Amino acid sequence: MSTATPATPAPEFDLGAELHAPELYQPVSDTAHSVATFDDIGPREIAFYREHGYLAVREAFTPAEVSAALAGLVDLIMGKNPAFNGITFEAAAKTILPTLSAEQRQDAVRKAWHFVNFEPRLKAISHHAKLLAVAKKLIGDKEPEMFQDMALVKPPRLGREKPWHQDHAYFDYPLGTPVLGVWIALDAATIENGCMQLLPGRHREGPITHFQRRDWQICDNVIMGTKSVAAPLPPGGLLLFDGLLPHGTPHNSSANRRRALQFHYAPAGITKTTAEERMKHFGSEGKNVTC
């Protein structure tokens, strides 16, 4: 029997590094509608979410909860759990990664995913009792099932855009399934470092055709010049948003890190559809649309 040490998985790099046009992100407001805590979400706030497709919570998690989650994420990035390899590095870091120290590698990461079963501190925040209680209300008083976990990292200067898109375009759930996105700031999220920008109310328009350009995204010419609402958040703040709400995050033009967690929930027990069915609603093929 061989006793050789298993090879370390090769780093995975995100391939798209094209910078976006500044005109794609023109917030008319930097004050997304918000409440202070989970306890402040009542019928009026639920109605706002239904109408506008989002709701922010400024103080969703305590400083201790944020510190624990951030420490868990950093441990994974630093390779402290050898069994975990769900890391994607920024394309711009590809040529310099071998030269980076362990600390510098933290600013070369674009995202991490599928980590809740590797890091209990991150699983704790994804299954926070108050978060799940709100999620249940927003998906129609049905038990929420978390089906996606990601950490979205925008390193200083290097962190690139996540183009405008609808999250439901990525998921093989039947159209009409309530999908809830939860975006949690671990650092202060600002306009300068790439906080979320939204098109409130546009979730009610249904699916928008997506294309594979800088990412799987809404065509730039559909968004160009559209006024958005920015959602800056303090550490521990979160954004709740509908799976059909168009949103995006621009390039990090600041000297500050912007680390965030993102989870998605849907009603438990929903039978998924096929990628082909999803593409009938969100895909570009055969629609005679240019991008």
Please characterize this protein's 3D structure.
The protein is α+β, with helices and mostly antiparallel strands and about 290 residues long. The protein has one domain (about 20-280): q2cbj1_9rhob like domain (Jelly Rolls), CATH 2.60.120.620. About 20% of the residues lie in helices and about 25% in strands. The chain contains seven helices and 16 strands. It has helices at about 45-50, 65-75, 100-105, 120-125, 130-140, 220-225, 275-280; strands at about 10-15, 25-30, 35, 55, 85-90, 110-115, 145-155, 160-165, 180-185, 195-200, 210, 215-220, 225-230, 240, 245-250, 260-265. The strands form three sheets. A nine-stranded mixed β-sheet has the order 1-5-6-7-16-9-14-4-3. A hairpin with a 3-residue loop joins strand 11 and strand 12 (about 215-220). Helix 2 (about 65-75) crosses helix 4. The termini are far apart. Residues about 1-10 have low confidence and may be disordered.
Topology:
Blueprint lengths: L11 E2 L12 E4 L4 E2 L7 H10 L1 E4 L5 H15 L9 E3 L12 H4 L3 E5 L6 H7 L2 H10 L5 E11 L7 E4 L14 E6 L10 E3 L11 E3 L3 E3 L1 H4 L3 E5 L6 E5 L4 E3 L8 E10 L7 H8 L9
Parallel strand pairs: 1-5, 2-13, 3-4
Antiparallel strand pairs: 4-14, 5-6, 6-7, 7-16, 8-15, 9-14, 9-16, 10-13, 10-15, 11-12
Feature tags:
291 residues, alpha+beta, 9-stranded mixed beta sheet, 20% helix, disordered N terminus
Number of domains: 1
From the alpha-carbon coordinates, what is the Rg to the nearest angstrom?
A: 19 Å
Strand content bin: 25-35%
Question: Given this structure, which CATH class is correct?
Answer: Mainly Beta
Helix content: 10-25%
Element order, helices and strands? EEEHEHEHEHHEEEEEEHEEEEH
Low-confidence stretches: 1-11
> What is the CATH superfamily?
q2cbj1_9rhob like domain
Give me the secondary-structure category: alpha+beta
CATH topology annotation: Jelly Rolls
Strand order of the largest sheet: 1-5-6-7-16-9-14-4-3
**Number of strand elements:** 16
- Give the integer mean of the pLDDT values: 90
Q: Quick one: biggest sheet?
A: 9 strands, mixed
Instruction: Please tell me what the overall shape is.
Output: globular
- Rounded to the nearest angstrom, the distance between the terminal CA atoms is 55 Å
How does CATH name the architecture? Sandwich
Number of helices: 7
